[in-house]
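S.,

As promised, the AHG run. Input:
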Amino acid sequence: MNEIYEAIKRSAIRIKDAIINEDTGYSDNTNSTGDNQLKLDILSDKIIEEEFVHLTEVKELASEEKEDALTLHQNGKYLIGYDPLDGSSLIDVNLSVGSIFGIYENDYSGKSLKSAVYVVYGPRVELVIAGDDVKLYRLIDGEFKFIKVMRLNQEGKLNAPGGTQQHWPPHHKEMIDDIFKSGYRLRYSGGMVPDLHQILLKGGGLFSYPATTDVPNGKLRMTFEVFPFAFVYEKAAGEAIDGKKRLLDLTPKHIHDTTPCFFGSLEEIKLVKERYNGK
Ligand code: AHG
Ligand code: MN
Ligand code: MN
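Predicted complex:
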């Protein structure tokens, strides 16, 4: 597992340099979800592949930017599901973006996830590793230095409601309105990595990306985005559900499948369960 973390660190430093120096324009391609790929999405994917290709403990790579999983070493133990550059359309406006990694064994189900890592490229570069607990590292003088263990409070103050409001189901809109009425503040950048990172570091809150009439299964992808963050939130003493069920009990039929998702501290997730009960 350590070799995997080291490969992620090397990738993160190269992706940070690419974000700073390379062209932020679109390529001529779309990915499996139908998103237009930026040149930086493709380059970040290539960097990660290069850093992982010689790791014999890695059997397979599944990327948000590739249609199919790529076999590396038939006898490898781990499968890596990753989003090389999450929130990449925010780069041209110079907002924070991230990379997300899920380290799986056997298959890409929530139960098979053994560890999760994400990187935040913001004013500073930070890396978070969730194993038994959730550790924050910061890139200082070319090295990732350990900063602290992150843990959510029982209840927070931030609300990050995703998806187009016009398409929210009525029970979801009512819940979000009530959360704001009870004093929560809006924190939503459009990048799930910095948005979820902020909630973790400020002690708690709710991030949601519900099922909507335009995207009935939500927008966020289980293998590359949702499971890794569900793992992080659970290890940080929070919870992650699809409205009713625990996200890490789900199994995608296809690596690019999406799901509605809610990540938060215990009190906020309790509220989601109450409001989604019977819906
Ligand atoms: P990606 O850039 O990898 O396609 O993912 C962007 C995701 C996620 O980071 C964010 O939370 C969500 O899209 C924002 O979607 P909306 O603009 O629909 O709220
Ligand atoms: Mn993404
Ligand atoms: Mn992406």
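The two ends are 40 Å apart (CA to CA). The first strand starts at residue 26 and ends at 30.

- D.
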